[in-house]
Amino acid sequence: MTANLRQTWWPGLLALLLALSFVATAERLKSVPRQTVDLELQVALPLFVQVFMAAGDRYLAANLAAIRALVVVTEKMRPEDYRILGKVQEDASWLNPAHEDNYYIATAILPWNGELDAAQTILRRASLARRFDYQPAFYYAFHLLHFKGDPVGASAWLREAAEKLPRDDERLIMQNFAARWIDRAHDVDLAIRIVEAMAKQARRKDFRAYLEQRVARLQSLKELRAAAGRYSERVGHPPLKLQDLVDSGLIPAIPSDPFGFGFEFDQQGQIILRKTPPRSPPK
Amino acid sequence: MWPFLVSAWRAGLRSRSIQGVLVLGVLLVGVAYLSASFSPRQPRTVALDVGMSGLRVSLVLFALFWVQELVGREIERRTVLFSLTYPVARGNYVLGRYFGVIGLLALAALLLGLLLWLVVLATGGDYQQGFVIAAGLPYWMTVGGLWLDAAVVAAFALWLSTFSTVPMLPLALGLAFAVGGKSLGAVTEYLAKGADGDPELMRFAPFINAIQWVLPDLSRLDWRAWPMYGLAPEGLAVGLGLVLAASYAALLLALAVITFTRREFQ
Predict the structure, then answer these.
(1) How far apart are CA A24 and CA A18, in angstroms?
(2) Among A111, A142, A199, B75, who pairs with A211 as Cys (CB 3.0-4.6 Å)?
(3) Quick one: CA dihedral A271, A272, A276, A277, positive or negative?
């Protein structure tokens, strides 16, 4: 009888001990930090791996990378995240240089967040592959003008874009633009018009809203630069901080930035868009 | 040869595993339709692109399963011996089965291609893309290229089946062959352009070059840039790709006939 009881109880007791051990370990493990691998390796896989993961299909690998680029939430991204996004999109453009969404998303996000070189690589490849599409060369030209301050190079690329337009009158208009761009480095109005045009072409509502926020941001920048110009004329020197423009009554308040990053001065004293969120509210 | 081909058709259409793969094919076309919603400017192109990838995966799986069902399993269960009692050369059995399988593949390519074609045209609603897709001859030529790709994979799996004593070997190695052959184009191009200056990867270059003597570059049979962007492939590239695929498949078939003729069944 005793031996029988022992035989019946031991397995149950063992199971109970194991269950307690499991629950205690699971509870303790919750507070143990997870090992993290290098962020770049975590999200930007080597090209070989991307191709093999897509069963050897480079077009599928390109689509997967382009979809990843499209679904990222840019509001919470840090500079190193943009670097990885640039790498993912560069890889997508290597796998399928003609991918329209890829060059379009790259144009909308990367150059505005410190990843101009990646955007230009993607656009150069797209321009070569898409012999029928003027837009990659057009955006490439605009970036040279706006970000690099290279109106001569921009004008040359714009003429290349003009050659891809189907109609003579359209070609003529763009060639005319190419001539005028030589005089228009750092033109915020031009940036507003181009991003506005991109927003109008966007089919997805959330992406259109993102581009419209970018337009609003550029319009605020334009307003601030105009006020700074008037300030310099009135006081004889440029403003030292943005609050000077408000204190002098030139603007009612510092315009709000839909991204929450705000504005700052560059080394030449020019007001520019901040690329990272400020530690304290912008002044 | 004809009776073996006809029996391959009958058995192939009845097979349950193939019905499963057919469902997978339809699902992949569904995925293509859904993937279009991720595209801000070119929903039809993306649906076509992802759909072509799904079609290729489905056709390769069809090829492997049909070869497995119609040759591998017959050898495993020894039912092949009934076919070999006919007073014809053994090669007829191998060739009949192969042409039966590629005929079935053509039917599958046509059906799934038609389904994808309808899905792509129905994608995007009223939205007019800046650059329209070429849904006529370029589309069907691309489907034809994917069929040829699957036919080469079928020839490889068939050759393996003629000597394999492990039932799953043709399926597993056939899949590795399909992925390897398809990756080869991207990998050789990457290495030819300097592998982003990575000397570690460049050490593989001679090895990859040597592989091309035994593994065909199946990406040469993928012409989807034509229907997607209107970029017609060069005639020379298409012609050489066709000759490469046909000669490789014929070589494997010849080897399969030789191996099967000499095989001793206990």
Answers:
(1) 10
(2) A199
(3) positive
A125 touching B (Cβ < 8 Å): no
Residue of chain B with shortest Cα separation from A105? B40
Helix (H, G, I), strand (E, B) or coil at B232: coil
Measured in degrees and rounded to the nearest 5, phi and psi for residue B170 equal: -60, -35
Work out the number of other CB atoms within 10 angstroms of the CB of residue A162.
21
d(CA A108, CA A123): 12
Q: Tell me how far CA of residue B35 lies from CA of A198, B38, B204, in angstroms.
A: 22, 6, 35
Q: What is the ipTM of this complex?
A: 0.82
> Each residue of B18-57: pLDDT tens digit?
677 778 878 888 888 888 888 878 888 999 999 999 999 9
Distance CA A43, CA A91 (A): 12
Q: Check A201 against B52: CB less than 8 A apart.
A: no
Cα–Cα nearest to A142, from A128, A130, A153, A131: A153
- In angstroms, the Cα distances linking A180 to A151, A154, A183 are 9, 11, 6
Of B145, B144, B174, the C-alpha closest to B64 is B174
pLDDT tens digits, A24-37: 988 888 888 776 54
